[in-house]
Structures are given as structure tokens and as C-alpha cells.
Amino acid sequence: MYKVAIAGAGAMGGRIGVALKQAGYNVTLIDNWKEHVYNINTYGLEVETEEAVTSVNIPAILAKDVTMKFDVIIVLTKAMESESMLEKLQEAGCIGNDTRIVSMMNGLGHEERLSKIVPLSKIYLAVTMWTAGLKGPGQLLLEGTGSIDIQRADRKKDLFTEDILKMFNDAGLNAKASDDVFKSIWSKATVNSVLNPLCTILDKNIFEFGNYEKSREMIIPIIDEIITVAAAKDIDLNRKELLEKIEATYSKATQGLHYPSMHQDYSNGRLTEIDYLNGQIVSYGESLGLTTPANKIITHLIHQLETKIR
Ligand code: NAD
Questions:
Q1: CA 197 to the chain's CA centroid
Q2: Which residues form the Ketopantoate reductase N-terminal domain (predicted)?
Q3: What is the CATH number of the domain that holds 225?
Q4: Which of 108, 136, 172, 262 is found 20 to 30 A from 299 (Cα to Cα)?
Q5: Are residues 157 and 63 in the same domain?
Q6: Rounded distance, CA 79 to CA 258, Å?
Q7: How many CB atoms lie within 10 A of CB 218?
Q8: How do residues 122-158 score in pLDDT, each as one tens digit?
Q9: pLDDT at site 120
Q10: Longest C-alpha distance within the chain, in Å?
Q11: pLDDT per residue over 205-252, tens digit each?
Q12: Minimal-distance CA residue to ligand 1 atom 10
């Protein structure tokens, strides 16, 4: 049986870790938050769902203390913490020649950063529609259902992809192999590049943002720049499909009453993933000779807000 680590065991890492553990897999949670790790090891990871509050026994360890080697490391830090987390794990000898890294974070360019540590053939990119929340250290809030699409970062097929699909599906995580995970990642990143920063800057939930009759005029320049940058990288995005995806979230019956994760991070005094969304579009644009003024101003606006936190 594979030895699995969840590197970054916050809300989403906790969700995936608990599902795998409950399906009988050998899972260790790795995190930098002392109180979280202490509570998990002392009281179990508290899991609140629509039905019940339970406690799951699952080993957790601080990243600075980990020494064992893993077969699979699922990365669910925030995007800006992934490189330092993996560097720490590499120094500690946790990453062997056969260790596979599964990136399930939101945002763009993870394959480029992670390939500084392991070759692309050992990196698997996953995009997930599951959601999760943290009520406090050692306390998960899990609602709704989701899915996971996964593909090797060099787009080649292999047996490990089958193994990880089996593992995720044994854990009820509704996973499937993707033929074009980059398109799914870029589509999700486009939705996030619109709703996350705009709701944060405006201090609105998704319904309130969508309720403004000219919201489409605000969205289109952001989307069009992303489509142009994506096309230059051979990723084919469709404006109509993206607009439909974004506008489908406005209803109070779907995600309308939610504040996007960036709003929650900013409100809780934490830095945001802006540099891996709109900011990544700006830097790809610069390296491709494409201007991305709408995404640039959005990135600056969020950085301006973050000066209060830094
Ligand atoms: P998270 O903030 O819950 O956890 C990320 C890291 O931050 C963890 O190491 C966690 O321990 C730490 N952390 C959280 N609160 C802390 C606090 N108060 N003090 C100290 N450390 C703290 O992030 P997440 O929601 O699990 O997101 C991880 C990745 O998954 C991100 O790239 C995110 O965009 C993506 N993602 C999240 C969801 C979701 O619904 N949560 C859904 C899809 C993708």
C-alpha cells in the first residue's frame, strides 16, 4: 500500500486526508500550524458534516519534524507555500526517486514550480470541485459533494494514474482521468480570477457582485486577456463557456451567498493566492509579449489591500 502524505493539511488537505484514511489508506498529514497538528494528534481531527460531528484518528506531523519517505505527496498548501513546503520535505529525505507529487491547489503554473524539485513525469495535476472549510485548529467543516480530474503533468498516461484514481475512488472522491487537465485548471483559474479578487475588492458576496447589472462589462476584459494568454500557451478557452460558468454561480441557490476564499483569507488577515491567478496571467503575458492591463490592475488592487497584512 502506498504511503501517502498530505502536504498542507488545512481545509482541503484535511478533507482529502480524512477520506483516504476512512477508506483504509496509510495517510499522514503534514502541516506548519503547530496548534492544528497538536489538536489533531491529541483529540483527533474533528469533522463536522451536515449529518454529524465525528473525530477521525489520523497522524499529523509538523513539516519541520518529518523524516519518513513517502510514495505519494498530495500538495494542498496555499499556492505561495508549496515550494517552501516541498523544499523542506526534500531536505528531510521524504522525496525519493519514485515519489509522486499530486498538486491539487488552485491557480496556475504549479507544474513549473514543482518541476524544480521532481521531474514533470513525477508530477500529477489535479483539479477539484470539492470544497472544505476550517472552523479552527483541528476542526474541519465538510459540506456538499465534488469531483477530481487528474492527469500527469507531461500529459503521458501511466499505471500510477490508475492507482491514484482507484485510491481516490475507494475514498468516494469521485475522480476521473482527464485528457486535458490544463484546460480544466485554466477554466477554474479564470472563474477564480474574476470572482475572488472582485468580491474581495468590493467586499461583496457572489450574489451581490452578480446582481450589479453591468457586472459583465467588468468581467469581459479580465476573461479576454486570460483567453489570449492561454491561446499563446496552446490552451483553448471559450469566452461563452467561461461567462456561463461564472454567471451560474450568482444564484442564491448555488454559490451566491458565499464569499470566495480570497475574501475569507483577506478578512482573516492572511495573504491571498492572487499571484497564482491574475498575477500569473500578467507574468505569463510579460514573457509572451502580451499586455494584460485588466489583470495587472486587479493584481495591484489586491496587493494594495494586502499591504495592511504584510
Ligand atoms: P487552508 O487555508 O485551509 O490551509 C492551507 C494552509 O494554511 C494549511 O497548511 C493550514 O494549516 C494553514 N492555515 C489555515 N488557517 C491557518 C491559521 N489560522 N493559522 C496558521 N495556519 C493556517 O487552505 P485550503 O482551503 O485548504 O486551500 C488549499 C489549496 O486548495 C489552495 O490552493 C486552495 O485554493 C485550494 N482549494 C481549496 C478549496 C476549499 O474549498 N477550501 C477548494 C478547492 C481548492
A1: 16
A2: 4-153
A3: 1.10.1040.10
A4: 136
A5: yes
A6: 21
A7: 15
A8: 999 999 999 999 999 999 999 999 999 999 999 999 9
A9: 98
A10: 55
A11: 999 999 999 999 999 999 999 999 999 999 999 999 999 999 999 999
A12: 10
Report the nearest-CA residue for atom 12 of ligand 1.
10
What pLDDT, on the 0 to 100 scale, is given for residue 95?
A: 98
Q: Looking at the chain, list the stretches that DSSP marks H as alpha helix, in order from N- to C-terminal side.
A: 11-22, 34-43, 82-91, 110-114, 159-170, 181-202, 206-210, 215-232, 239-248, 261-267, 278-288, 293-306
Ligand 1 atom with the shortest distance to the CA of 32: 9
Spatial separation of the C-alpha atoms in residues 286 and 69, rounded to whole Å:
39
148-152/123-128 β-pairing: antiparallel
Report the distance separating Cα 282 and Cα 300, nearest Å.
11
Q: Which residue's C-alpha cell is 521524504? A: 94
Percentage of the chain modeled with pLDDT above 70 = 100
Q: What pLDDT, on a 0 to 100 scale, did the predictor assign at position 310?
A: 86
Q: Is residue 188 annotated as part of the catalytic site, yes or no?
A: yes
Do residues 123 and 201 share a domain? no
The residues lining ligand 1, judged by C-beta closer than 6 Å to any ligand atom, are 8, 10-13, 31-33, 36, 76-79, 105-106, 128, 131-132, 134, 261, 273
Are residues 158 and 103 part of one domain?
yes
Give burial (CB, 10 Å; 0-12/13-18/19+) of 293: exposed
Q: Which residues pair with 176 in a beta bridge?
A: 149
Cα gap 163→177, rounded to integer Å: 11
Same domain, 18 and 155: yes
Give the three cell numbers for residue 154.
507531461
The length of the chain, given as a count of residues: 310
Give the helix/strand (H/E) hosting 251. Answer: none
Report the relative pairing of strands 70-75 and 123-128 from DSSP bridges. Answer: unpaired
- Are 150 and 10 members of one domain? yes
Q: What total of structural domains would you count in the chain? A: 2
